[in-house]
Amino acid sequence: MPNGLKGWLTFLAIIMLSVGTCQSSVADEMEENGVKKAVYLSPRFELEPGSVCNKFYYDIGFPKGHIAVKSFDAEVIDEAGNSVPLHETYLHHWLVVNYYQRQGGTDKPDTKAGGNDGLCSNALPQFFGLGSETRKTNTYVPDPYGMEFGNPAKIPSGYEERWILNVHAIDTRGAHDELGCTECRCDLYNVTMDETGSVLDPNYAGGLRCCYDNTRCRVKEGFQGAKRGLFMKYIVTYVDWHSSIVPVRVYIFDVTDEWRKSVDDDDSTGSNSSRHDCRIEYNVESCAHADENSSCIDTKSVSIILPTGGVMVYGVAHQHTGGIGSALYGQDGRVLCSSSPIYGQGTEPGNEAGYIVGMSTCYPPPGSVKISDRETLTVVSNYNSAQGHTGVMGLFYILVADFNSSSTVNISSQVQLVRLQAKMLTPPRISGMALLVIATVGIAAAAHQRRKQRENISGYDNIVDSFIVGN
Questions:
Q1: Could you report the per-residue pLDDT of 67-108, keeping only the tens digit for each?
Q2: What's the topology of domain 246-404?
Q3: Which InterPro entries match (predicted)?
Q4: Which positions ≥6 away from 126 have C-beta within 8 Å?
């Protein structure tokens, strides 16, 4: 298990003992018709050919107050503000997670861990996070939903909410084996111990334990490349919290999760994170010696009980190079979401050939994809195994809203939302009569939606080719 991820709680305690802060800077802030955007830069980090940055920055910039985040987009840029292509700096992953810092000095514990709703909260606590697919993966949370943060009622008394950013990037300029470097093959990094000093198992061929901070992947003999400064640029789009917004829970599933339901355990819902052993990464064996009729597809799956269900409003998978798609299934075998990688075909940032530059996302019609409490869900991750791969991942992110809030949004909330949207999308010159028409349409739409929900509509629309490209 990668110690840098698995030891989230330990890490949080350690970094808070450090002196000083690592705040990111605000590059720009803007607001248009109630929708706000804050653009931040991480602290500067340096990379040279073959080098690795896997750093954690705490107390980073993030919007203050009681808000609903609508999207979170990010990319690596250079000191001139230019987007850096993946074939120069491979973005293995980036993660953003909250924590709570005590206000004022006391002899009591200074920090409390935050994190999402599970189920791998001990290893995958982030609310936001992607990898090479960052630039072309849609992160927008559809109306009337939002990711709620800064709610005073949910922040521990005497604490304030803060944020941590983890950036894992690999400089592949002049790499002896570019794919091998991005897959963290141990022989290319010439390491025999992980970042904690523990000796690596001889059978551990590659993964996060070999490409930790300040390691270096093998480059071609004689290759010269300058050390350069880089930043993680991230854009948070949000609105002030309003009663018409429906909060969502964030779940991240891991196909390597070794949790199993215990028949001897009274609480077998899977809610206890100590029963989940999310390994984060795994290897794909080559099918080169397989039967000639083999499809050369490596399939890995896991079934997990979701303690608290609701209405799914968004879904997306995370895979590495070689991935050919992932799916999430309900207990009855229905497809809740299918997410496929988009491979680049050029050289420019966001379209780098051979790299996954985006993942298709799922936006079900409101109320159409329902997950019952304690329903068993199955995650399936598929990779092309024509060649072997090390350190691959098979994660699945979903956003879920409560049944009572998402399926029975009252008329007044619908009207408030329509008014807000009208304010956001229409210029001041539109007449009051036009706004009345918009509101009337909104009420009719709300009524229609309730009728559809009463008819227990099933199924979903898999939205593809709809992406937000990082600026």
A1: 999 999 999 999 999 999 999 999 999 999 999 999 986 666
A2: Jelly Rolls (2.60.120)
A3: Stress_up-reg_Nod19
A4: 95, 96, 97, 115, 116, 166, 252
